[in-house]
């Protein structure tokens, strides 16, 4: 399970979003952290919703958004916990982040069926507001 998630993170780092989406089940349920501006579409259902509601907005609103210091932790019941940090600069304000985050992934039959993000939403909000 960790290998699947690792491959998805590597694809994201390379900008290969189609490969990331291919790792998702057609019926994935994706949740952004409460308090995150991207949580306005929670839950995102299906890869297209994730693409349009999350990845598309990240690309349009953030410069050099990247995930760093990713550590994967295998869990029972086809789950993986990732601890990591977000780096990037919010385009509208020019403010940068170095935010602590965690991702809880749930898989079934080799595809991601569930995602829950946890992140320092205060830091994100401060970057997004002048």
Description:
- The mean pLDDT is 97.
- The chain has a single domain, classed as Nuclear Transport Factor 2, Chain: A (Roll), CATH 3.10.450.50.
- The longest helix is centred in the middle third of the chain and has 15 residues, at 47-61.
- The protein is built from four helices and six strands.
- Helix content is 32%, strand content 45%.
- The protein has 130 residues and is of the alpha+beta class.
- The N and C termini lie far apart (41 Å).
- Strands 2-1-6-5-4-3 form a six-stranded mixed β-sheet.
CATH class division: Alpha Beta
How large a portion of the residues is in β-strands, by DSSP E? 35-45%
Topology-level CATH name: Nuclear Transport Factor 2, Chain: A
What is the string of helix and strand elements? HHEEHEEEEH
**How far from one another are the termini?**
41 Å
Mind summarizing the main beta sheet?
6 strands, mixed
Number of helices: 4
């Amino acid at each position: 399970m960790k290998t699947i998630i690792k491959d998805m993170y590597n694809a994201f780092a390379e900008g290969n979003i189609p490969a990331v989406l291919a790792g998702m089940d057609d019926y994935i349920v994706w949740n952004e952290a409460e308090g995150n501006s991207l949580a306005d579409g929670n839950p995102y259902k299906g890869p297209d919703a994730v693409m349009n509601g999350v990845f598309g907005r990240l690309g349009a609103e953030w410069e050099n958004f990247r995930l760093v210091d990713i550590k994967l932790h295998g869990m029972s019941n086809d789950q993986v916990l990732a601890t990591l940090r977000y780096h990037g600069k919010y385009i509208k304000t020019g403010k940068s982040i170095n935010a602590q985050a965690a991702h809880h992934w749930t898989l079934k039959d080799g595809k991601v069926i569930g995602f829950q993000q946890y992140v320092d939403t205060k830091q994100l909000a401060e970057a997004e507001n002048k």
